[in-house]
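Entry: VanZ family protein
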Amino acid sequence: MQRQGSIRGSAAIRIRVTGGVLLVAHLALVAWLMLRPLDVPWVMPPNVHPLAGIRADLALGWPQAVRPLGEGLALLAPLGVLLPMAHGRLAVSTPASLVRTAAAGTLISLGIALLQTGVPGRVVDVDSLLLNTLGVIVAHLAVVPAGRAWLRRREARESGAAEQQVTVQEALSQGRTPTIPRVGIAP
């Protein structure tokens, strides 16, 4: 028996499994990209002041700022879609889903930042945490509400067709089998 608001049937299993597999693959790619040691002659000091790195990138001008800011936004952005996809619920309020997904994206980004402290050539950058979280939020808002609405419409069409098929079968048969309500046993 499935919870109310979950995707039903084999489509649900395919969506959840696909979401889970893609989530694991994406996190493995992110770990490989962000936790490899860098062979560099010197390392910048850690950035623990929020927005300082973003301001420094923007001070270089837009053409030079687009790449580092885009990389920060795009690194964990797929999590904004993959986390709700792996969860598989359709009847969820958008703000609640957004808060859960943003919190999970923030925690994953924070975990990566903490793991990077032990990797040679990598330093902590609080702006990457902010950009990663913003990327997760933007991806979630751009894809998940429309995707859930489409899946709800598809499910309603399929369940309507199934109900019509059941009523035709009932018309041809003698009707539904009567059921007896359960009665509690007296002490």
